[in-house]
Amino acid sequence: MAIIYNPNKKIFNLHTVHTTYQMQVDPLGYLLHLYYGDKTNSPMDYVLTYADRGFSGNPYAAGMDRTYSLDALPQEYPSIGTGDYRNIALNIKNEKGVESADLLFKSYEIRSGKYQLQGLPAVWADKEEAQTLEIVLADENAQVEVHLLYGVLEENDVITRSVQIKNTGTGQITIEKAAAACLDFVQGDFDVLRFYGKHAMERNLERTPLGHGTIAFGSRRGTSSHQYNPAVILAEKGTTETAGSCYGMLFVYSGNFSCEAEKDQFNQTRLLLGLNEELFSYPLAEGETFTVPEVILSYSADGLSALSQQYHNCIRNHVCRSKYVHMQRPVLINSWEAAYFDFTGDTIVDLAKEAASLGIDMVVMDDGWFGKRNDDNSSLGDWQVNEKKLGGSLAELITRVHNQGVKFGIWIEPEMVNEDSDLYRAHPDWAIQIPGKKPVRSRNQLLLDFSRKEVRDCVFEQICAVLDQGKIDYVKWDMNRSICDMYSHIYTGEQSGECYHRYILGVYDLLERFVQRFPEILLEGCSGGGGRFDAGMLYYSPQIWCSDNTDAMNRLDIQYGTSFFYPISSVGAHVSACPNHQTGRSVPLSTRADVALAGSFGYELDLRLLSDEEKAQVKEQIKEFHDYYDLTHEGDYYRLTERDNTSFTAWEFVAKNKERALVEVVKKDAWGNPLPVHVAIKGLEDNSMYVCSLNGIKRSGKTWNHAGITLPKFLSAGESMKFTFMKVE
């Protein structure tokens, strides 16, 4: 059993293959966190210490015992008004303005299978793959129940957490803050690993020692954002890729979020992840329940690579639902950097002809096919085909493309509207903007109020009418701005604080309808590239366009940071033209392909401008993508270099059965009198023999793992190399 309750000690044990998560109901009824780490069967309540600590409050129920204080005890779900002055997971306010939630244990239930969350993406599992623990905490005075949900995926070394908050009284309560998960550590010296960025340079790793006080980050942009990813790692000092303890939290949510890591006056550490309390205030009437989106927890005693692999396996097998998750994805050519808005139907067909001749599987028609859309300034919201521009109907164009022997895809941006559109002129109140105030534009567009069902219905009907015109094999779902001027004509007054969350719920509702209506379509997420690269979106789309930055050298850093939580199969990566359209840099075609191979592979350039030699390279690159697919999309991924390695970047894919491995190396910079490049190797089976394709040398996996390999030649700046290890007798 993955979940075991000890009634004598009132201890809950959540076991996975390699880890144990332990908590206890103490004599006063508070739920304390005891332990999360290497698997153990021992009760860990001995970690609790009690002392009279000045200015730390004592619950009334403790009587005259001044050694008992929630200000110093590790808690499972800390709330406001209990004498705990650290960052809290829950803040509730009643009709009188009183903010208090003194939560005591009420009941629990263990059941087979993994809980699901209505209207929200969440980890899924077959009944025999998971167990659920539901613990009910209650405050009778505040008249609130808090249901703590734990999903244990034993074989995946993953524990999920969500919270349901229920108003059990007769008056209204308002949720002012709600985290999904909290981890309290009574000791330890930790670093915080977070992933910051900006548009076209997302998910850069920043590792910061956690000193006294709080390290906090998050998003108030209405999306999980380019600026911070909704994920965090707490790593013990000295933890490397292959050694040391580290804890991960990944939010399965695409909207505003907040993460707080705090070291208190007693050198204890608290880690919180959940909804951003700014721009959030959620009233609950009598009997109503609010569900906090889910956080995925995982722990590794063997360093960061093992932690990443646990998340990769979880997302591939228990978050993504598409039929394409384990199917070989098509190699596509996207029209954007080839033509931008300047194309016709003939342009797309010509691109398809070239694609077919090179072995590319699909052509995607990007922005500019609808309304009068020839720039950023009009027609979003008018999802009607511009037949004049395409030289015929969409059905005719689809047939023409399919006749070239390739599949056809299309770009959409359903959440957006331009003021210069028929939809906006008919329904200006459907756009998110404050009455009487000129709106803040971004990319000269506004957002539709997806909290409103009639808005979603209209957009969905338009999109269906387009997709029903022919066999469309792929859709790229984009979202190209942050949310500002939040206002809803439906959710006003006390409900105005619901709007950001209800917007995301509306996005999820439309996505769910889309995937149910079009299960055969490969859906790729996008938000100006990687602005909504999160587990919530991966629940609906098996891959996300990783970044609008297609420069191979910049992608090394972007894809490096992305790999800490997200599998390579989820990373949309393309070979683009040079000089690169974002950086102006020129990089060899072979290097661009090697970098894009660490993702769902494709091209974004004008194939007609390639030389015969380059076309031959493209054919070979596509062949390699197919040859290595089982490694790149299903294998274990290893980062072989740190981000601050200024000389080169290297990574490795190892097959699940350990039969072969692929190593890729990119030289980042050139130096006079260069040193040889020595690459670490990981993940091979110690007692098996492997031959390296670089030199034909056969050695044991243990030897390769410990000694690595030195490249036989010096690489120039921007040059790449890849080689394999094959198991032999």
Q: Summarize the biggest pleated sheet.
A: 9 strands, antiparallel
Overall 3D shape:
globular
How much helical structure, as a percent, in the residues?
10-25%
Radius of gyration: 27 Å
Q: What fold name goes in the CATH topology slot of the domain at 3-318? A: Beta-galactosidase, Chain A, domain 5
What value does the average pLDDT take? Answer: 97
CATH class of the domain at 3-318: Mainly Beta
Low-pLDDT stretches are: none
The number of helical elements comes to 14
Distance between the termini: 39 Å
Q: How does the helix and strand content classify structurally?
A: alpha+beta
Name given to the CATH architecture of the domain at 3-318: Distorted Sandwich
Considering the protein shown, what is the CATH homologous superfamily of the domain at 3-318?
A: alpha-galactosidase from lactobacil brevis
Total count of strands: 37
Strand content: 25-35%
Major beta sheet, strand line-up:
6-7-8-9-19-15-14-11-12
Characterise this structure.
The protein has 729 residues and is of the alpha+beta class. The strands form 7 sheets. The chain has a 9-stranded antiparallel sheet. Strands 20-21-22-25-26-27-28-29 form an 8-stranded parallel barrel, surrounded by 4 helices. Strand 28, helix 11 and strand 29 form a beta-alpha-beta unit. The mean pLDDT is 97.
Any chance you could write out the topology, listing elements then pairs?
Layout: E1 3-6, E2 11-15, E3 19-25, E4 31-38, E5 90-94, E6 104-112, E7 131-139, E8 144-153, E9 158-167, E10 173-185, E11 190-198, E12 201-209, E13 213-219, E14 231-236, E15 246-251, E16 257-263, E17 269-275, E18 282-284, E19 289-300, H1 304-318, E20 332-334, H2 336-339, H3 345-358, E21 362-365, H4 387-390, H5 394-402, E22 407-412, E23 416-417, H6 422-426, E24 446-447, H7 453-467, E25 474-477, H8 499-517, E26 522-525, H9 535-538, E27 543-545, H10 552-562, E28 571-576, H11 589-596, E29 600-604, H12 612-627, H13 629-634, E30 636-639, E31 648-654, E32 660-667, E33 678-679, E34 689-692, E35 698-700, H14 701-707, E36 709-710, E37 720-728
